[in-house]
Design goal:
4 helices, single chain, about 20% helix, three-stranded antiparallel β-sheet, Acyl_CoA_acyltransferase, alpha+beta
Length: about 160
Amino acid sequence: MKYTIREMYPQEYPLLADFLYESIFQREGDDPFPKTIIHQPELQVYIKDFGTGKDDACLCAVVDNKVVGAVWVRNIHGYGDLDDETPEFAISLYKEYRGYGIGTELIRQMLELLRKKGYKRASLSVQKENYALRMYQKCGFKPVIDKEEEFIMEYRF
């Protein structure tokens, strides 16, 4: 599949609400969460006022002039929080664009962006059952905190 990766334009930031919903792990066979779930405060920290924080950065994947995926980082107290200096990853693709290597490339390019900005590490949270766990490991993330159903993972530069 032919795609390009670029910085997300500020006028596209409202798309992060859709990508936040897509990033929520939902088990096969379970009823889908309502889209309103993203209005919960613990999820809003990932997108509210995005672009106003000094650590906010977002890359997106584009296929046929349509934004089909995004990876964004913020220094927040989210599910993958490690400390006040470590930006936390969020990433998602629309379902029909998964499995083509786009997510891996989004992560690699964001890691390179963070490395150039001088960060020492990055973090994320992932459910242990989530197929994306292998992708994160392949990209160099390692579990540092083992919770009951999820890992907090870090990438060290």
